[in-house]
Amino acid sequence: MAIVNVTDQSFSTETTEGVVLADFWAPWCGPCKMIAPVLEELDGDMGDKMKIVKLDVDENQETASKYGVMSIPTLLVFKDGEVVDQIVGFQPKEALAETINKHL
Predict the structure, then answer these.
(1) Using CA atoms, how far apart are residues 40 and 43, in angstroms rounded to an integer?
(2) What is the DSSP secondary-structure string of 66-100?
(3) Phi, psi of 88 (to 5 degrees)
(4) Residues 6+ apart with CB under 8 A from 56
């Protein structure tokens, strides 16, 4: 599955079913740029079991505010529309995979 860019309007639709990793990021954020290729790899490895969505917090402040995102990158793990885990800051692929696997 490919990584999906979402907006305030499409966020809830994209996170209601199954396990979804939501990346709250911004174009000017250094650690966000560092985590992007890690998410691409993760999608390649686990894309058949879960979905990854990216939300630009500068353009979609409503959703970031709703979930209390104060610093970026913040990664929220959703399972059937509910937040089940949160990761703040850059993490290596192995740590992200371990967190996601707990909810598959």
Answers:
(1) 5
(2) HTT--SSSEEEEEETTEEEEEEES---HHHHHHHH
(3) -115, 130
(4) 5, 25, 26, 27
The catalytic residues are: 29, 32
Distance, CA of 24 to CA of 72 (rounded, Å): 6
Which candidate, 93, 66, 80, 71, places its Cα nearest to that of 26? 71
Task: Return the residue matching tokens 């990793």.
Answer: 21
CA distances from 94 to 26, 67, 69, 71, 98 (A): 23, 25, 23, 22, 6
pLDDT digits (tens, 9 = 90+) for 74-93: 999 999 999 999 999 999 99
Q: How far is CA 52 from the centre of its chain?
A: 6
Contact, 24 vs 76, CB < 8 A? Answer: yes
**Residues 27-51: tens digit of each pLDDT:** 999 999 999 999 999 999 999 999 9
